[in-house]
Amino acid sequence: MWSIIAHKQGVQATKERLKSYWTTLGVTSALMSALTYPAVTSPPITKQTSGSDVDDPLFVAYVLLNTTSLIMSLVVVIMSVVMLAEVDLVVTDEDLEVFIERYQFLFIGLTAVFGCSILTIITSIVVLAFYNFNKGTAIASAGIVMTGTFAVAAGAAWLALWTRARLKFHIDNANALLKNVVAKLLVKSVAPSTGSSGSLDAAVATAVEASGDSGGPGGAGSSGRNPRMQSSL
């Protein structure tokens, strides 16, 4: 996707888009890590069930989910900072084009990691609801959370599909225009060469006719005798 944008808008404009994208992603992930860090270091639920040395399964699930979200958020923050620092070291347009082409899957991967960190936080909220409330209340809370999540995911997916469809439309139009221009240039380049070859053929035919007339019955060489002998006779 990013390589297509680079071909459409230019590598320098794409570079600025990427820097804005990484900044937004890094700041948002930093906020998410600040949200999940207390849940990992000081969980709001009890570690053990009463009268047992075994950790409560809901407690384990809650801590693991928030720990996973925290790690993924930190990965996004670190990689965003690294990308922001490294892209400014690419000084030529040729190298920048190679950079975008080679690492564009990493750019998309950061978005996927960020999305997974959000999903783990949402899942931990559902786990917390089952820990704190009775079954009916927990199911209702989980239903509300899942409905909101699916609504946001559907809206994001629709927006992503629309933007990519429009991008593909513009790229297809640009390719079709380029093909038409190339075809017209080929026609114009072939036409003069065809005309010049026709003129050359006409010139050759005229020369052949002229040589044929000079060597014909009425020509100087048609009698088979020397012109001096004719004049003397």
From TrEMBL:
Residue segments, region Disordered: 209-233
Coiled coil: none
Membrane-spanning intervals of the chain: 21-40, 60-84, 105-131, 137-161
Record key words, sorted: Membrane, Transmembrane, Transmembrane helix
UniProt key word Transmembrane: yes
Gly residues bias (residue ranges): 213-222
Protein name: PGG domain-containing protein
Origin species: Chlamydomonas reinhardtii (Chlamydomonas smithii)
